[in-house]
């Protein structure tokens, strides 16, 4: 798998995290990176849901 450009590389990395480790971890990584990412086929989450997922992942 290859990508070109910084954003494409981040998208690819998040896709791989999503695929092999799960969407929740990919969303957490995206939040830590402050990068707006949504798993393929999903609607963007509102900020509250994303914050809750991030907090739950750090417990």
Question: What's the helix and strand layout?
Answer:
Elements: H1 6-21, H2 23-33, H3 47-57
Helix pairs in contact: 1-2, 2-3
How much helicity do the residues have? 55-70%
Radius of gyration of CA atoms, rounded to a whole number: 11 Å
Largest sheet, strands/sense/barrel: none
Shape, please? Answer: globular
Oligomer: single chain
Count of separate DSSP helical elements: 3
- How many β-strand runs? 0
Distance between the termini: 33 Å
State mean pLDDT (0 to 100 scale). Answer: 79
Strand portion: under 5%
Number of domains: 1
Q: Class by helix and strand content?
A: mainly alpha
- Poorly predicted regions are none
**Helix and strand pattern:** HHH
Overview of the molecule:
Helices cover 64% and strands 0% of the residues. The longest helix is centred in the N-terminal third of the chain and has 16 residues, at 6-21. It is mainly alpha-helical and 59 residues long. The model has no long low-confidence stretch (mean pLDDT 79). It starts with 5 loop residues before the first helix and ends with a helix. It has helices at residues 6-21, 23-33, 47-57. It is built from three helices and no strands. The chain has one domain (6-57).
Short description:
By secondary structure, the chain is mainly alpha-helical. Helix content is 64%, strand content 0%.
Features of this protein?
single chain, 59 residues, mainly alpha
